């Protein structure tokens, strides 16, 4: 009996061919793929389906509601195989060929990947089927080193989703992470993207990353340490290599002790490193290149400040310099002589870019040197200066308005009497003047008249008094229209001599006209 069964199995296995096919190799976002298991021969087989992924090595049986169906709809990617079994007589067909099905991931792209000053960041969620009624939700990633994952916070204006597959973040200045979600209602489906970061080289006090030794390129024999500093007691160092799509921790490429990661630089690599704090902050990012060649360029790992002096050096692993050393900036030759160093006395924004060096036909890798502009508070200084000038101008205008009447009333000029041979003058040393000004009165609504009463007291002899009528000078100031630039002042003088002298006749009371031009030095 046993020999008969084995013979049947062997005969069955040798004659039957099992083939697995798929209607398409890629599962679209929110879609599916149909697999078909074909066993050569009569019907009546039971089908088993197996799936294997990189995350879970080894074949896993995929549950099925109807084991007699030779077709199956799947919505997950992986490596699939099938097996056909017959119960009467009992026989197992050989395993089918493997079919790899790729699952479309929701892809988030950020532009730019490295921030410049006050740059806007554009996030784009890529969906192949744009007509399926998708809505997009945008999130900010918040690091959590204690649980080794990210939490997510909705960005402003994203609580109800957006129809557009892009989102613009304004004013981003520091390293940050983002994630997007695509969601639809018919049929119900959603997918989340992987976190994507936009990096900044700018250092801030709450979270910063330093490299020791402080340079961007290193030999595989060098010891390289990355240290996190800032307002947190808990840190993790993250890495994204140029050839890898996934983020990794320091433990995958080194050893983390406290807030310092010591890299295992025994093999060549190029990656971006940054720190993430327990308080949910990202540090500045640095690009570290580990080279297994004989030449590297020694350049600063972090940005240099505009105006500082910078030195770039070419370093050999084991040789000595025997010939000309070439330095390049953005592929343009900038120095070729025996010096192994290129110096910039006062670096500027134009010096920013890629640098490399070359010696004896061997060339270093390129490194980006970032130049950080010095903050110049020009706008705030101009605002303060303008405000001060405005206040001073207002004060001057108020002072001119306040003192204008008194200036209009002061005219210090000698007054002569032609009625006798004796000249009489009013001298400042002999007279004390008290000025009483009345407000101007309008005549006909178009002329301003100012009356000034000037009392002249003669202190020549005690006991001699003058009545106000005899010792007053009335000044009649009339201002003409705006196109007439003349002002006429009428001064009536009543001058009395000593008490024993005879008063001059009425003709002595003369009228003096003084011509005053508007805009003169008295401030009008």
What does this molecule look like?
The chain has 524 residues and is mainly β. The protein has 5 domains: 102 residues, Immunoglobulins (Immunoglobulin-like); 92 residues, Immunoglobulins (Immunoglobulin-like); 90 residues, Immunoglobulin-like, CATH 2.60.40; 74 residues, Immunoglobulins (Immunoglobulin-like), CATH 2.60.40; 111 residues, no CATH class. The chain is 9% helix and 45% strand. It is built from 2 helices and 42 strands. The strands form 10 sheets. Strands 2, 4, 5, 7, 8 and 9 form a 6-stranded mixed β-sheet that branches. Strands 37, 38, 39, 40, 41 and 42 form a 6-stranded antiparallel β-sheet that branches. Strand 4 and strand 5 form a beta hairpin. The relative contact order is 0.07. The N terminus and C terminus are likely disordered.
Distance between the termini: 134 Å
Percent range for helical residues?
A: under 10%
Number of helices: 2
Globally, the shape reads extended
Classify the secondary structure makeup into a structural class. Answer: mainly beta
Strand % is over 45%
Q: Give the number of domains.
A: 5
The profile of the biggest β sheet is:
6 strands, mixed
Low-confidence stretches: 1-14, 407-491, 493-524
Radius of gyration: 48 Å
On the 0 to 100 scale, the average pLDDT is 76
Please provide the count of β strands.
Answer: 42
């Amino acid at each position: 009996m046993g020999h008969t069964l084995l013979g049947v199995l062997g005969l069955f296995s040798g004659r039957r061919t099992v083939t697995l096919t798929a209607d398409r190799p890629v599962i679209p976002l929110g879609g599916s793929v149909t697999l078909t298991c074909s066993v050569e021969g009569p019907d009546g087989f039971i089908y088993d389906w197996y799936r294997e992924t990189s995350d879970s090595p080894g074949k896993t049986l995929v549950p099925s509601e109807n084991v007699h169906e030779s077709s199956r709809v799947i919505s997950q990617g992986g490596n699939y195989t099938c097996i056909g079994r017959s119960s009467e007589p009992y026989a197992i067909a050989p395993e089918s060929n493997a079919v790899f099905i790729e699952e479309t991931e929701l892809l988030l792209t950020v532009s730019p990947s490295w921030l410049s000053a006050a740059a806007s960041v554009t996030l784009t969620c890529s969906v192949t089927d744009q007509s399926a009624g998708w809505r997009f939700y945008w999130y900010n990633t918040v690091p959590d080193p204690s649980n080794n994952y990210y939490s997510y916070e909705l960005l402003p204006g994203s609580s109800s989703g957006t129809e557009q597959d892009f989102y613009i973040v304004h004013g981003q200045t520091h390293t940050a992470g983002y994630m997007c979600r695509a969601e639809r209602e018919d049929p119900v489906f959603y997918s989340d993207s992987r976190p994507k970061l936009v990096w900044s080289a700018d250092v801030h006090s709450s979270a910063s990353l330093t490299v020791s030794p402080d340079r961007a390129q290193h030999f595989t024999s060098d010891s390289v340490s990355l240290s996190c500093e800032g307002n947190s007691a808990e840190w993790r160092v993250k890495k994204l290599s140029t050839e890898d799509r996934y983020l990794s921790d320091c433990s995958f490429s080194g050893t983390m002790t406290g807030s310092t990661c010591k890299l295992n630089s025994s093999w060549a690599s190029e990656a971006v490193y940054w720190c993430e704090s327990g308080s949910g902050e990202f540090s500045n990012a640095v690009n570290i290149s580990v080279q297994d060649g004989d030449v590297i360029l020694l350049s600063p790992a972090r940005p240099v400040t505009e105006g500082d002096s910078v030195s770039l050096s070419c370093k050999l692993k084991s040789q000595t310099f025997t010939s000309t050393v070439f330095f390049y900036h953005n592929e343009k030759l900038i120095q070729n002589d025996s010096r192994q160093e290129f110096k910039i006395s006062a670096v500027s924004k134009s010096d920013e870019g890629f640098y490399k060096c070359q010696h004896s036909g061997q060339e270093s890798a390129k490194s980006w040197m970032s130049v950080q502009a010095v903050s110049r508070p020009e706008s705030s200084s101009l605002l303060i200066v303008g405000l001060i000038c405005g206040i001073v101008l207002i004060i001057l205008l108020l002072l001119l308005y306040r003192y204008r009447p008194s200036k209009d009333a002061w005219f210090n000029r000698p007054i002569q009497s032609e009625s006798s041979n004796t000249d009489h003058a009013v001298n400042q040393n002999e007279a004390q003047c008290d000025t009483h000004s009345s407000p101007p009165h309008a005549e006909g609504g178009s002329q301003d008249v100012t009356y000034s009463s000037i009392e002249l007291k003669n202190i020549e002899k005690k006991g001699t008094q003058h009545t106000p009528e005899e010792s007053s000078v009335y000044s009649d100031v009339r201002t003409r229209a705006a196109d007439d630039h003349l002002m006429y002042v009428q001064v009536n003088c009543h001058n009395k001599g000593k008490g024993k002298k005879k008063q001059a006749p009425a003709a002595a009371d003369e009228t003096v006209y003084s011509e005053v031009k508007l805009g003169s030095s008295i401030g009008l």
